Amino acid sequence: MPDLCTIETRHTDRSTVVRLIGEIDASNAALIDGELRAIAKAARNVLIVDLNELEYVDSAGIATLERTTNDLQCRIAISRAATVYQTLHVVGFNEGHELYDSVGEALS
Amino acid sequence: MSTVRGTLLAALIGVLSVIAIVLAPGSVPPSAPMVAALVAAALCSFRQTVVFAVVALVTSLLLTRFVSDFSGSALWSRVIFQVALGAIAVIVSWKRMQWPALSERTLPVLHDVSNELFDAHGMDELGVAVEALADPLDATMTSLFVWEGDRLVALPRVSEELGSPVAPQSGCPGDLLAQVVARDRAMYWTSTSELAIEIPDCADWFQSKRLQSLAAIPVRADNAVTGVFLAGYTRPQAFDVAQRAFMNQIGSQLSRAVEKARVEEVSRSIANELQRSLLGPTVLVPQVGNCSRYLPAEEGLSVGGDWYQTVRLGDGNFGIAVGDALGHGLAAATVMGQLRSALAACALMATNAADALKVLDVYAEDLPGASSTTVVYAIVNVLDGWLEYSSAGHPYPLYVSPDGDARYLDGAQGLPLGANLSRTRVSQRIPFPAGSTIILYSDGLIERRRESLDIGLDRLKAAVVERWQLPIELLADDIVRDLFVDKARADDVAVLVLRSPVTSEDLFLTKLPARTNELAPLRGELRSWLEQHVSDRSEINAVLTTVGEASANAIDHAYPGQRDPLMRVEAARIDGDVILNVTDTGRWKAPEPSPDRGRGLMMMEALADDVTIDRRKTGTSVTLRHTIKRTLDARPVHH
Question: Could you tell me if the ipTM is greater than 0.85?
Answer without folding.
Answer: yes
